[in-house]
Amino acid sequence: MQLELIDVVKVYRGQKRAIDGLTLQIGSGLLGLLGPNGAGKSSLLRIAATVTRPSSGKVLFNGEDVVARPDPLRQTLGYLPQDFGVYPHLSAREFLSYLAAVKGLSARSARSRIDELLELVNLTEAAKRPLGGYSGGMLRRVGIAQALLADPRVIIVDEPTAGLDPEERVRFRNLLSDLAADRIVLLSTHIVSDIESVSNDIAIMAQGRLRRRGTPEELLGTMTGQVWETVVGPAEAAQLQARYVISRTVRTTAGVRVRLLSSGPPTADAIAVPPDLEDVYLGVVPGPGARTGELPAVPR
């Protein structure tokens, strides 16, 4: 199986270009799509899931044009959008039963599958409660269950762990990792930890473009020698924040420990440290407060 997006552009009213000539090939396995809010990730996933059409470019599933003929992909697709709506007066079981009928599952197979999924997302005891009384995290788990109803071969999930507690986040990440053994799984998030623990293929997106893609090892290699830690006083810490991309700061009894990105030592006693994926992410997609003059000398 292969899902391909080729030179995809999406322009909304007002000429807002959400996706700007992006090409992405996705085979079996889990691709983690990482990027800040507003990067165009949700627009890209809606196009990949045939919910919306690109302004230009191609979307192919096993070589077939899904913009012109979306049904072959839709028949094998499980999709969880970022904004997932429910019928508040229905229970979780009633809601999933309704969606199972829409997807064409028989009543018998739907009952069995719904029981399995409610247990999988830890909602069995709440299955008869109206969805209007669910917490945000519980509704997200219902969304995860509906995406898996028809045992899809292509799974596209947008910010799936939003609102989940730490235990549920780990449970769902492990589930996606298991499903990816023989399926296409596209997981979009702005949370680095959601990606680094389950994906061996990571794409970083910003401003509607694909900025970088590779294995964790390949991405970490691009930042070798460009991540530094130093301990300074509060005044000097503020100066460093004005000049460099700061990964994190920790106040200690000795001063402020600053971890930052730079092509050379930022202070005389700075120590080069091994990069992590958060450093890579910040090097590719610096925050709004970053100073471009001292960004790491890595390809953009």
UniProtKB/TrEMBL annotation:
<keyword id="KW-0813">Transport</keyword>
<feature type="domain" description="ABC transporter">
    <location>
        <begin position="3"/>
        <end position="232"/>
    </location>
</feature>
<dbReference type="GO" id="GO:0005524">
    <property type="term" value="F:ATP binding"/>
</dbReference>
<dbReference type="InterPro" id="IPR003439">
    <property type="entry name" value="ABC_transporter-like_ATP-bd"/>
</dbReference>
<comment type="similarity">
    <text>Belongs to the ABC transporter superfamily.</text>
</comment>
<dbReference type="Pfam" id="PF00005">
    <property type="entry name" value="ABC_tran"/>
</dbReference>
<dbReference type="GO" id="GO:0016887">
    <property type="term" value="F:ATP hydrolysis activity"/>
</dbReference>
<keyword id="KW-0067">ATP-binding</keyword>
<dbReference type="InterPro" id="IPR027417">
    <property type="entry name" value="P-loop_NTPase"/>
</dbReference>
<dbReference type="InterPro" id="IPR017871">
    <property type="entry name" value="ABC_transporter-like_CS"/>
</dbReference>
<dbReference type="InterPro" id="IPR003593">
    <property type="entry name" value="AAA+_ATPase"/>
</dbReference>
<protein>
    <submittedName>
        <fullName>ABC-type multidrug transport system ATPase subunit</fullName>
    </submittedName>
</protein>
<keyword id="KW-0547">Nucleotide-binding</keyword>
